[in-house]
Design brief:
Elements lengths: L1 E4 L2 E4 L2 H8 L11 E4 L2 E4 H9 L8 H11 L2 E3 L12 H9 L6
Antiparallel strand pairs: 1-2, 3-4, 3-5
InterPro entries: SCO5918-like
Length: about 100
């Protein structure tokens, strides 16, 4: 499949991507990720390997779109949960703590 990453055209094939990622240890996932085999890789790491370009030259979105079109499962970063807003009474009660049972 032909795709454009960082303004350069690439002909990517799913099997070739899988082969190029064999033996490469996944970095810790802190952003968008892709499942290749049974491992989750950061999309920027995969993009760097398959394009042989620096990670700063392309966006995670470009690589995610290309890998999704090839049939890989891509995951986005989950949105952070909103902190619970306590009422003034609940806030004061939390500061006092719970009563000690004897």
């Amino acid at each position: 499949m032909r795709c454009v990453i960082a303004r350069f055209p690439f002909d990517l094939v799913k099997n070739d991507v899988q082969e190029s990622m064999k033996g490469i240890k996944p970095e810790p996932v802190t952003g968008e990720s892709v499942i290749i085999g049974r491992r989750a890789y950061p999309v920027k790491q995969v993009g760097e390997v398959i394009t042989k370009q620096d990670r700063r030259d392309f966006t995670a979105g470009e690589v995610t779109r290309a890998l999704t079109r090839l049939g890989f499962t891509c995951r986005t970063v989950p949105a952070p949960a909103a902190p619970a807003v306590l009422s003034p009474v609940e806030s004061a009660s939390a500061m006092l703590g719970t009563p000690v049972q004897e």
